[in-house]
From TrEMBL:
InterPro entries in the record: Transp_IS110-like_N, Transpos_IS110, Transposase_20
Coiled coil: none
Domain Transposase IS116/IS110/IS902 C-terminal: from-to ranges: 232-314
Name by which UniProt lists this protein: Transposase
Annotated organism of origin: Streptomyces caeruleatus
Length: 404
């Protein structure tokens, strides 16, 4: 009798749920009809992951495992489970109403994750490790910018209350000129002046170091982003930071996104239905990944200032009576559609490596080439270096150079 029960247990379909933390993870197992079977706690080590998987498999055939924090505390377990062939599903934390109703604990959250995997409420595949390096570089570059901004603000605050001689000499300077002057100074004078100048010099040197650090990180980030998705990076208005943010939001595996509408909703750029009774309307989405929404916003601003098609579109919408805020909202939705295509399909980027050698062989300056096409020399320079994608201009430029 006991052997028969064990055989039934091994043959049944079960679903797992994982509530992950820094040092431990809690595993819960439920049957295919939602019944609670067992739960246990394991350490976030290789041995703990192996024991957790053995615990899951001991209760039957594991159909799917819902994991909270697949890209953070649960990343190690997720990698191990996927290598073992398990179907892992990314699970968001329970909504607040349910949490207030049933409370919160590790077993409760683990069972909730298992139920989310069983019911289909959670269905997204976890992000793979393809963009782990991009995420690390992006976070480091962002933190360098934040630290640099904090140091610049501190310089301004110190100068506000500094002795009059120091404030008169350095307070009128701005930007890089002020930073360079403060980094070069040699503190002298009375004790107060020496202390203030020493602080200002230290802050200025910190700003310069962080600036160099950010440039190096951005260069490395640009190389990784371009290698991972050259079509996305070559799209007009998409720089290293915005491309990295969109890749981090979407994940390296394109199967996580079902449609361009779901990606727009993920970025908070899709209008949300807000109808009731006789009212039929949509409202602006305040959800989604706000960092990705900010990336779409920056792309929209770049295109509004430098892309002829976008400028024509803005003119038409302005004539139609739309405000600038409404136009940007429409642009972000259209850009999200374009970014989805770049993230999910391989986009062929025509090479431009031949343009600069060809121009130099004809002894044509950047200024002369830019004057012929009616653009700024920087536009031609970035086109030659592959930093700007404009296929029509590139073809026309190549043909002109060959005929020159």
């Amino acid at each position: 009798m006991t052997a028969a029960v064990e055989e039934d247990t091994v043959g049944q379909r079960v679903f797992g749920g994982v509530d992950s933390h820094a040092d431990t993870l809690h595993i819960a197992v439920i049957s295919d009809n939602g019944g609670h079977l067992a739960d246990a706690e394991f350490t976030t080590t290789a041995a703990g992951y192996a024991a957790a998987l053995a615990f899951l498999n001991a209760h039957g055939h594991v159909s799917a495992v819902g994991v909270e924090g697949t890209s953070s505390y649960g990343a190690g377990f997720t990698r191990t489970a996927r290598r073992q062939g398990l179907h892992v599903i990314e699970v968001n934390r329970p909504d607040r109403a349910e949490r207030r109703r049933i409370g919160k604990s590790d077993p409760i959250d683990a069972y909730a994750a298992a139920r989310a995997a069983l019911s289909g409420r959670a269905h997204a595949a976890p992000k793979d490790d393809a963009i782990a390096g991009i995420r690390a570089l992006h976070n480091a570059a962002r933190s360098a910018v934040k630290a640099r901004t904090a140091a610049l603000n501190q310089i301004g605050h110190v100068l506000i209350s500094a002795p009059e001689a120091i404030r008169a000499k350095y307070g009128r300077l701005t930007g890089r000129a002020r930073t360079d002057a403060l980094a070069r100074l040699r503190p002298a004078g009375n004790a107060v002046n020496v202390a203030v100048l020493t602080a200002l010099k230290s802050l200025a040197q910190r700003v310069k170091e962080l600036t160099d650090e950010h440039k190096a990180l951005t260069k490395a980030l640009d190389a990784d982003v371009t290698a991972h998705n050259p079509g996305l990076r070559a799209t007009h208005g998409v720089g290293p930071d915005t491309a990295a943010q969109l890749l981090v939001t979407a994940g390296g595996n394109s199967d996580r996104m079902r449609s361009e509408a779901s990606f727009a909703a993920l970025c908070g750029a899709a209008p949300v239905p807000a109808s009731s009774g006789k009212t039929n309307r949509h409202r602006l989405s305040r959800g989604g990944d706000r960092a990705a929404n900010a990336a779409l916003y920056r792309i929209a601003l770049v295109r509004m200032s430098s892309d002829p098609r976008t400028r024509d579109y803005v003119t038409r919408q302005t004539t139609a009576g739309r405000t600038k805020k409404e136009i940007i909202r429409l642009l972000k939705r259209a850009i999200a559609r374009e970014m989805f295509r770049c993230l999910t399909t391989a986009v062929l980027v025509p090479g431009t490596d031949d343009l600069r050698p060809l121009r130099q062989s004809k002894n044509i300056t950047l200024t002369a080439a830019a004057g012929h096409f009616g653009v700024w020399p920087a536009t031609i320079s970035t086109l030659e270096r592959g930093l700007r994608r404009d296929d029509a201009l590139a073809h026309a430029y190549r043909d002109w150079l060959k005929a020159a």
